[in-house]
Amino acid sequence: MLGRVPAPDDVLATLAPGRSGPVRPLGEGWDNLVWAVGDDLVLRVVKDPDPTVKRATVERDVALLAFAGRHSTLAPPRVVAADPEAGALLTTRVPGVAAVESGRLDTSALADDLARFLTALHAVDPVLAAGVVRPDPDSAEVWLAQVGEEYAAVAGDVAPDLRAPVEEFLGAAPPPPAQDLVFCHNDVRDDHVMVDPASGRVTGLIDWGDAVLGDPALDLATVLTDFGPAVLDRVLDGYLRPREAGLADRTRWVARRRMVEDLAWRIRTGDEPGGRRTSATLRRLLAD
Questions:
Q1: How far is CA 240 from the centre of its chain?
Q2: What's the whole-model pTM score?
Q3: What is the DSSP secondary structure assignment for residue 240, as one 8-state letter?
Q4: Deepest of 23, 30, 257, 276, by most Cβ within 10 A of its Cβ?
Q5: Which residues are in the Aminoglycoside phosphotransferase domain (predicted)?
Q6: Which residues contact 74 (CB under 8 A, 6 or more apart)?
Q7: Which of 130, 127, 129 is nearest to 71 (CA)?
Q8: How many Å apart are CA 144 and CA 171, to the nearest integer?
Protein backbone atom coordinates (compact mmCIF):
# COMPACT_ATOMS: atom_id res chain seq x y z
CA MET A 1 0.00 0.00 0.00
CA LEU A 2 1.25 3.47 -0.90
CA GLY A 3 1.17 6.09 1.80
CA ARG A 4 0.57 9.81 1.68
CA VAL A 5 3.50 11.70 0.19
CA PRO A 6 4.19 15.09 1.83
CA ALA A 7 3.75 18.25 -0.22
CA PRO A 8 6.87 18.90 -2.31
CA ASP A 9 7.37 22.38 -0.83
CA ASP A 10 7.48 20.87 2.65
CA VAL A 11 9.96 18.19 1.55
CA LEU A 12 12.14 20.80 -0.15
CA ALA A 13 12.14 23.10 2.88
CA THR A 14 13.51 20.29 5.06
CA LEU A 15 15.78 18.74 2.46
CA ALA A 16 17.52 21.85 1.14
CA PRO A 17 16.68 25.07 3.04
CA GLY A 18 17.35 28.04 0.82
CA ARG A 19 16.99 26.10 -2.42
CA SER A 20 13.73 27.37 -3.78
CA GLY A 21 11.90 28.02 -7.01
CA PRO A 22 8.58 27.25 -8.65
CA VAL A 23 7.68 23.59 -8.05
CA ARG A 24 5.74 21.78 -10.78
CA PRO A 25 5.01 18.10 -11.38
CA LEU A 26 7.22 16.26 -13.86
CA GLY A 27 5.54 12.88 -13.59
CA GLU A 28 4.92 9.76 -11.59
CA GLY A 29 6.79 6.51 -12.00
CA TRP A 30 6.19 3.12 -10.49
CA ASP A 31 8.33 3.97 -7.46
CA ASN A 32 8.58 7.76 -7.28
CA LEU A 33 6.82 11.10 -7.60
CA VAL A 34 8.91 13.72 -9.41
CA TRP A 35 8.81 17.52 -9.51
CA ALA A 36 10.85 20.21 -11.22
CA VAL A 37 12.22 22.85 -8.85
CA GLY A 38 12.87 26.00 -10.81
CA ASP A 39 14.68 25.38 -14.07
CA ASP A 40 17.68 23.43 -12.85
CA LEU A 41 16.66 21.02 -10.06
CA VAL A 42 14.55 17.87 -9.77
CA LEU A 43 12.93 16.57 -6.57
CA ARG A 44 12.06 12.89 -6.34
CA VAL A 45 10.19 11.23 -3.46
CA VAL A 46 9.77 7.48 -2.95
CA LYS A 47 6.08 6.53 -2.80
CA ASP A 48 6.44 3.40 -0.68
CA PRO A 49 5.65 4.25 2.97
CA ASP A 50 8.02 1.60 4.37
CA PRO A 51 10.95 3.49 5.99
CA THR A 52 13.32 0.65 5.10
CA VAL A 53 12.38 0.88 1.42
CA LYS A 54 12.69 4.67 1.45
CA ARG A 55 16.12 4.59 3.02
CA ALA A 56 17.47 1.78 0.83
CA THR A 57 16.16 3.37 -2.38
CA VAL A 58 17.66 6.78 -1.71
CA GLU A 59 20.99 5.41 -0.48
CA ARG A 60 21.26 3.20 -3.56
CA ASP A 61 20.41 6.07 -5.91
CA VAL A 62 22.94 8.40 -4.28
CA ALA A 63 25.68 5.81 -4.68
CA LEU A 64 24.57 4.90 -8.21
CA LEU A 65 24.50 8.48 -9.50
CA ALA A 66 27.92 9.19 -7.99
CA PHE A 67 29.26 6.02 -9.65
CA ALA A 68 27.64 6.97 -12.98
CA GLY A 69 29.16 10.43 -12.74
CA ARG A 70 32.62 8.89 -12.54
CA HIS A 71 32.16 6.47 -15.44
CA SER A 72 29.54 7.80 -17.86
CA THR A 73 30.53 9.91 -20.87
CA LEU A 74 26.95 11.28 -20.91
CA ALA A 75 26.17 13.54 -17.97
CA PRO A 76 23.82 11.99 -15.39
CA PRO A 77 21.94 14.03 -12.80
CA ARG A 78 24.12 15.11 -9.87
CA VAL A 79 22.91 14.76 -6.28
CA VAL A 80 22.39 18.08 -4.50
CA ALA A 81 20.79 16.81 -1.29
CA ALA A 82 19.31 13.59 0.05
CA ASP A 83 17.15 12.57 3.00
CA PRO A 84 17.03 8.75 3.12
CA GLU A 85 14.58 8.72 6.04
CA ALA A 86 12.08 10.79 4.03
CA GLY A 87 12.80 8.96 0.80
CA ALA A 88 13.69 12.29 -0.83
CA LEU A 89 16.39 13.09 -3.36
CA LEU A 90 17.21 16.47 -4.93
CA THR A 91 19.34 16.42 -8.08
CA THR A 92 20.44 18.72 -10.83
CA ARG A 93 18.29 18.68 -13.94
CA VAL A 94 20.12 17.54 -17.07
CA PRO A 95 19.63 20.39 -19.57
CA GLY A 96 17.69 20.02 -22.79
CA VAL A 97 14.62 18.06 -23.79
CA ALA A 98 14.02 14.36 -24.20
CA ALA A 99 15.06 13.11 -27.64
CA VAL A 100 11.50 11.94 -28.32
CA GLU A 101 10.29 15.53 -27.89
CA SER A 102 13.02 17.17 -29.93
CA GLY A 103 12.10 18.56 -33.31
CA ARG A 104 15.74 18.42 -34.28
CA LEU A 105 17.91 15.37 -33.63
CA ASP A 106 21.41 14.92 -35.03
CA THR A 107 21.25 11.14 -35.42
CA SER A 108 24.85 10.75 -36.59
CA ALA A 109 26.17 12.64 -33.57
CA LEU A 110 23.69 10.77 -31.37
CA ALA A 111 25.00 7.41 -32.57
CA ASP A 112 28.61 8.47 -32.04
CA ASP A 113 27.83 9.73 -28.54
CA LEU A 114 26.00 6.50 -27.66
CA ALA A 115 28.88 4.41 -29.03
CA ARG A 116 31.37 6.23 -26.78
CA PHE A 117 28.98 6.01 -23.85
CA LEU A 118 28.31 2.27 -24.18
CA THR A 119 31.99 1.50 -24.82
CA ALA A 120 32.96 3.26 -21.58
CA LEU A 121 30.03 2.00 -19.52
CA HIS A 122 30.44 -1.64 -20.54
CA ALA A 123 34.18 -1.43 -19.81
CA VAL A 124 33.61 -0.62 -16.11
CA ASP A 125 35.08 -3.27 -13.83
CA PRO A 126 32.07 -5.45 -12.94
CA VAL A 127 33.49 -6.00 -9.46
CA LEU A 128 33.29 -2.24 -8.86
CA ALA A 129 29.85 -2.00 -10.46
CA ALA A 130 28.59 -4.76 -8.17
CA GLY A 131 28.95 -2.30 -5.31
CA VAL A 132 26.06 -0.19 -6.66
CA VAL A 133 23.97 -2.50 -8.88
CA ARG A 134 22.88 -6.11 -8.74
CA PRO A 135 22.95 -8.70 -11.52
CA ASP A 136 19.88 -8.75 -13.76
CA PRO A 137 17.67 -10.93 -11.55
CA ASP A 138 15.59 -12.76 -14.16
CA SER A 139 16.58 -15.17 -16.91
CA ALA A 140 15.28 -14.86 -20.46
CA GLU A 141 12.97 -17.79 -19.78
CA VAL A 142 11.43 -16.01 -16.79
CA TRP A 143 11.00 -12.81 -18.80
CA LEU A 144 9.41 -14.75 -21.65
CA ALA A 145 6.89 -16.41 -19.35
CA GLN A 146 6.00 -13.12 -17.70
CA VAL A 147 5.58 -11.28 -20.99
CA GLY A 148 3.55 -14.18 -22.34
CA GLU A 149 1.10 -13.79 -19.48
CA GLU A 150 0.85 -10.04 -20.01
CA TYR A 151 0.27 -10.53 -23.74
CA ALA A 152 -2.36 -13.23 -23.21
CA ALA A 153 -4.41 -10.83 -21.10
CA VAL A 154 -4.72 -8.35 -23.99
CA ALA A 155 -4.30 -10.58 -27.06
CA GLY A 156 -7.83 -9.93 -28.28
CA ASP A 157 -7.01 -6.22 -28.61
CA VAL A 158 -3.76 -6.71 -30.52
CA ALA A 159 -3.86 -5.88 -34.26
CA PRO A 160 -4.79 -9.09 -36.12
CA ASP A 161 -1.70 -9.02 -38.35
CA LEU A 162 0.56 -9.00 -35.28
CA ARG A 163 -0.98 -11.88 -33.34
CA ALA A 164 0.58 -14.79 -35.24
CA PRO A 165 4.16 -13.40 -35.33
CA VAL A 166 3.99 -12.33 -31.68
CA GLU A 167 2.71 -15.73 -30.62
CA GLU A 168 5.39 -17.44 -32.70
CA PHE A 169 8.02 -15.32 -30.93
CA LEU A 170 6.58 -16.12 -27.51
CA GLY A 171 6.54 -19.83 -28.33
CA ALA A 172 10.17 -20.01 -29.43
CA ALA A 173 13.13 -20.60 -27.13
CA PRO A 174 15.21 -17.52 -26.28
CA PRO A 175 18.86 -17.35 -27.36
CA PRO A 176 21.59 -18.62 -25.00
CA PRO A 177 22.48 -16.12 -22.26
CA ALA A 178 25.51 -13.86 -22.24
CA GLN A 179 28.52 -15.24 -20.44
CA ASP A 180 30.01 -11.90 -19.45
CA LEU A 181 27.91 -9.33 -17.59
CA VAL A 182 28.62 -5.60 -17.85
CA PHE A 183 27.44 -2.40 -16.17
CA CYS A 184 24.24 -1.48 -18.07
CA HIS A 185 22.07 1.62 -17.84
CA ASN A 186 19.27 -0.72 -18.97
CA ASP A 187 16.90 2.01 -20.17
CA VAL A 188 18.64 4.02 -22.94
CA ARG A 189 15.33 5.16 -24.38
CA ASP A 190 14.36 8.26 -26.34
CA ASP A 191 12.63 9.75 -23.30
CA HIS A 192 15.78 9.39 -21.19
CA VAL A 193 18.39 10.66 -23.67
CA MET A 194 18.41 14.46 -23.34
CA VAL A 195 19.33 16.73 -26.25
CA ASP A 196 19.84 20.42 -26.91
CA PRO A 197 16.71 21.57 -28.75
CA ALA A 198 18.69 24.06 -30.85
CA SER A 199 21.57 21.84 -31.99
CA GLY A 200 20.04 18.38 -31.60
CA ARG A 201 23.16 17.22 -29.75
CA VAL A 202 23.05 14.96 -26.70
CA THR A 203 23.38 16.73 -23.34
CA GLY A 204 23.05 13.81 -20.94
CA LEU A 205 21.17 10.72 -19.80
CA ILE A 206 18.60 10.45 -17.00
CA ASP A 207 16.72 7.69 -15.13
CA TRP A 208 19.51 5.40 -13.96
CA GLY A 209 17.27 3.51 -11.57
CA ASP A 210 17.07 0.34 -13.69
CA ALA A 211 20.86 -0.05 -13.99
CA VAL A 212 22.10 -3.63 -13.60
CA LEU A 213 24.98 -5.94 -14.23
CA GLY A 214 23.68 -7.59 -17.36
CA ASP A 215 23.95 -8.51 -21.00
CA PRO A 216 25.19 -5.62 -23.18
CA ALA A 217 22.20 -6.44 -25.38
CA LEU A 218 20.00 -4.75 -22.75
CA ASP A 219 21.41 -1.36 -23.76
CA LEU A 220 21.77 -2.08 -27.47
CA ALA A 221 18.17 -3.29 -27.71
CA THR A 222 16.71 0.04 -26.56
CA VAL A 223 18.85 1.84 -29.14
CA LEU A 224 17.27 -0.43 -31.75
CA THR A 225 13.68 0.02 -30.56
CA ASP A 226 13.79 3.76 -29.94
CA PHE A 227 16.28 5.08 -32.50
CA GLY A 228 16.12 2.45 -35.24
CA PRO A 229 18.46 0.05 -37.04
CA ALA A 230 20.51 2.73 -38.84
CA VAL A 231 21.46 4.37 -35.53
CA LEU A 232 22.22 0.98 -33.98
CA ASP A 233 24.48 0.07 -36.92
CA ARG A 234 26.46 3.28 -36.46
CA VAL A 235 26.63 2.70 -32.70
CA LEU A 236 28.06 -0.76 -33.31
CA ASP A 237 30.60 0.67 -35.76
CA GLY A 238 31.97 2.79 -32.90
CA TYR A 239 31.44 0.27 -30.10
CA LEU A 240 34.98 -0.65 -29.07
CA ARG A 241 34.23 -3.63 -26.86
CA PRO A 242 34.73 -7.34 -27.54
CA ARG A 243 31.51 -8.80 -28.93
CA GLU A 244 30.53 -12.09 -27.45
CA ALA A 245 29.05 -14.63 -29.86
CA GLY A 246 25.30 -14.22 -30.22
CA LEU A 247 25.17 -10.53 -29.26
CA ALA A 248 23.19 -9.57 -32.37
CA ASP A 249 20.64 -12.33 -31.79
CA ARG A 250 20.23 -11.39 -28.12
CA THR A 251 19.83 -7.71 -29.02
CA ARG A 252 16.99 -8.48 -31.44
CA TRP A 253 15.39 -10.86 -28.93
CA VAL A 254 15.46 -8.32 -26.08
CA ALA A 255 14.09 -5.63 -28.42
CA ARG A 256 11.16 -7.84 -29.45
CA ARG A 257 10.45 -8.94 -25.89
CA ARG A 258 10.42 -5.36 -24.65
CA MET A 259 8.09 -4.24 -27.42
CA VAL A 260 5.62 -7.06 -26.72
CA GLU A 261 5.71 -6.06 -23.06
CA ASP A 262 5.31 -2.39 -23.98
CA LEU A 263 2.37 -3.14 -26.29
CA ALA A 264 0.58 -5.12 -23.57
CA TRP A 265 1.08 -2.25 -21.12
CA ARG A 266 -0.20 0.37 -23.58
CA ILE A 267 -3.31 -1.67 -24.36
CA ARG A 268 -3.93 -2.27 -20.67
CA THR A 269 -3.63 1.45 -19.86
CA GLY A 270 -5.65 2.62 -22.87
CA ASP A 271 -2.76 4.44 -24.57
CA GLU A 272 -3.93 4.13 -28.17
CA PRO A 273 -1.35 6.48 -29.81
CA GLY A 274 1.46 4.75 -27.92
CA GLY A 275 0.03 1.37 -28.87
CA ARG A 276 0.08 2.29 -32.56
CA ARG A 277 3.72 3.43 -32.32
CA THR A 278 4.74 0.28 -30.49
CA SER A 279 2.84 -1.91 -32.97
CA ALA A 280 4.71 -0.29 -35.86
CA THR A 281 8.06 -0.89 -34.15
CA LEU A 282 7.11 -4.48 -33.36
CA ARG A 283 6.11 -5.16 -36.98
CA ARG A 284 9.54 -4.00 -38.12
CA LEU A 285 11.36 -6.06 -35.48
CA LEU A 286 9.39 -9.24 -36.14
CA ALA A 287 9.87 -8.93 -39.90
CA ASP A 288 13.65 -8.58 -39.52
A1: 22
A2: 0.92
A3: -
A4: 257
A5: 23-243
A6: 113, 117, 193, 202, 204, 205
A7: 129
A8: 9
The rounded distance, in Å, linking the Cα atoms of 210 and 110 is 22
Per-residue pLDDT band at 1 (split at 50, 70, 90): very low
Confidence of residue 18 (pLDDT cuts 50, 70, 90): confident
- The secondary structure of residue 96, as a DSSP letter, is S
Helix axis angle for 247-269 and 217-227, nearest 10°, is 60
Domains in the chain, please, with CATH?
A: 8-92 (3.30.200.20), 97-287 (3.90.1200.10)
Percentage of the residues of the chain whose pLDDT score is greater than 70 = 98
pLDDT tens digits along 215-235: 999 999 999 999 999 999 999
